Amino acid sequence: MPLPPLLLRGFPNKLQFLRFIYFPYDKIPLRCTIIAIGHIFKGMKRKNIWNYPQKTKQTSALSLGGRLLHSLLIGGCFMAAATILLSLFFYFFPSQAVRSAHAIYDFASHLMQGDENSSDQPSWQNIISNQEIQETSPPPAQSQETTEIPMISLSSTQGDVSYIGQSGSLTETDADYLVMLDTAMGAMLYYNQGDSRWGDYLYGGMDPIRQYGCGPTVTAMLINAFTPSSVTPVDMADWSAANGCYSPHGGSYHSIITKALTAHGLHVESAANADLNTAAELLRSGHVLVALVGKGTFSNEGHFIIITNILDNGNVHIADSYNFENTKMEWDLGLVLAELKGSGDDGGPLWAVSY
């Protein structure tokens, strides 16, 4: 059955349309899947499975039932192939799939609204190009050239980590944060997931940073402060999705810490087996610690935070990208380490970062 003529308008041929839908980024695994499915259908065609044999001119209920069953079989094959294809596409390339779906929808909408004989209808190339620019361009950053960024106003209140099983909450949603933190490696600009400049940006094209973006936000803080690269959580969300560190509806894989930081020139080593004294010594020797905490004070499930420095009394300060109030308090290092996730990979649940 030919594709709907409406969707074919603007394409030189059917092949160009299929390439537009399925090959926007020329992914090899997807191509292999399509080729395999194509060979299956080609073999079926050679065996003449497509054409139900008509050996008699006589029409009977039995022959009509056979034709109906044959049609259902062929239709089921097409549906199964399409389902497998789309499932693989959305599983392996969620952001590309969402972007392509938006572009196809916009293209079809333009064709339906425009005059059929009009020559100024936008081409699908322009629509997909505009869609990519809108979705991948980071929000405009506020100029900081003439503004001196203030240091954070710290509180002497010690953070209470006794409410195990309760979750923190984002206390200042849609606020713009512009504050510096003092760390063992030097001054660091604080980023918050709920910042209005990127809180609603879709990580991987699917999940808002305000809910799922602690990984990109934590790595953005460290890279922006301690490398020549000037990055935001949006930049690191895109980097993570492009480099296999994004987990759809799950935030980030643990590998984002080692992959992102080492790719930008920072030194990362596992401190998963560090005890209280070892962690304290790392902080005193110019390291910051990235901690993956589990269910408890800071998170319902899992959350990346930065242990920024250690005080003379043995307490520490942290950078919590989800809750700014936690960032202003002092925390008992032993109690924070007690909330580390019980299991981790790629060096987790604790990493030591340095120049």
Task: Give a short synopsis of this structure.
It contains 13 helices and 12 strands. Helices cover 43% and strands 13% of the residues.
What does this structure look like?
It is a single chain. The chain has 355 residues and is of the alpha+beta class. The chain folds into 2 domains: 125 residues, no CATH class; 175 residues, Cathepsin B, Chain A (Alpha-Beta Complex), CATH 3.90.70. Helix content is 43%, strand content 13%. The strands form 4 sheets. Strands 7-12-8-9-10-11 form a 6-stranded antiparallel β-sheet. It has a two-stranded antiparallel ribbon with strand order 1-2. Strand 1 and strand 2 form a beta hairpin. The longest helix is centred in the first third of the chain and has 32 residues. The N terminus is likely disordered.
